[in-house]
Specification:
Layout: E1 3-8, E2 13-15, H1 18-25, E3 32-36, H2 39-47, E4 68-78, E5 84-94, E6 97-104, H3 116-134, E7 138-143, H4 147-153, H5 161-171, E8 176-181, H6 189-202
Helix pairs in contact: 3-5
Length: about 200
C-alpha cells in the first residue's frame, strides 16, 4: 500500500490511493506531492520545508515546479526462436497538455536480460536527454516499476552494470526528479498510452 502526501495542492494531506492524490495536484500550479511506502514518511514530508522555497527566485527563468510530467513504460515480446523484442515509450505533458511523445526499440544488447524493465529504464534516460535539450530542470516521472525510483535514489542497491549506469546517469543529470509510482494496467490514461507506445516501439511500428 502506498501513501500519497500532498504538501501543496487543492487539498493538502495524506491520501491512500493515486486517484485521490491526482485530483488534488493535476493541473495545480506548483503542486508538491510524493508517494511513500508508509504513513510516517508521508507525514515527515508534509511537515518538512517546501522544496520550492529555497530556489524560487532562481526558477523564475525556468519551468515552474511540477509543470512537466513524464510517463514512461517498457515492453517485452518473447519470440518463437527464444529471442526478445523490447521497446520503450514516453509521454511528456506541460500543464496537462502533451508536448512530446517518443518510442523506440534501441535497447542495448547487454540490457536484454532485464526484459521490459530495460525499456522502462531507457524511456527515463531518453526523457532526461530530451529535458536537457529543452532546458527543463525539473519534472515529475510517473512509472509502474519500483526499481526505477529505488535504484536512482539508492533505496535499492544497483548490482548489475545496466542498473548501475542508469542510477549514475540519473544522479549526474543535473535535473530535479520527483517520482510517482502508478499501478500498471489500472486505467490510468497516460500510463496506458505509454504502454501502447512501448509495444509499438518493440514491434517497430
Amino acid at each position: 500500500m502506498k501513501f500519497y502526501a500532498v504538501r501543496r495542492g487543492r487539498t493538502t494531506g495524506i491520501f491512500e490511493n493515486w486517484d485521490a492524490c491526482r485530483a488534488q495536484v493535476h493541473h495545480f500550479p506548483g503542486a508538491e506531492y510524493k508517494a511513500f511506502p508508509n504513513r510516517e514518511e508521508a507525514e515527515a514530508f508534509l511537515s518538512s520545508r517546501s522544496i520550492s522555497q529555497p530556489t524560487k527566485k532562481k526558477r523564475a527563468t525556468t519551468s515552474s515546479p511540477f509543470t512537466i510530467e513524464i510517463w514512461v513504460d517498457g515492453s517485452c515480446f518473447p519470440q518463437g526462436d527464444g529471442s526478445l523484442r523490447l521497446g520503450w515509450g514516453l509521454l511528456v505533458k506541460k500543464n496537462g497538455v502533451e508536448i512530446h511523445r517518443d518510442k523506440g526499440s534501441d535497447i542495448p544488447i547487454s540490457a536484454i536480460n532485464h526484459r521490459n524493465v530495460s525499456g522502462e529504464i531507457l524511456a527515463i534516460l531518453k526523457a532526461i536527454q530530451w529535458c536537457q535539450s529543452q532546458g527543463i530542470k525539473e519534472m515529475t516521472i510517473y512509472f509502474d516499476y519500483q526499481g526505477l525510483e529505488s535504484w536512482a535514489t539508492g533505496a535499492w542497491r544497483a548490482k548489475l552494470p545496466f542498473t548501475q549506469a542508469y542510477a549514475k546517469a540519473v544522479n549526474e543529470s543535473g535535473l530535479t526528479i520527483h517520482w510517482v509510482k502508478v499501478k500498471a494496467h489500472s486505467g490510468n490514461e497516460e500510463n496506458d498510452l505509454v504502454d501502447q507506445l512501448a509495444k509499438e516501439g518493440a514491434q517497430g511500428k
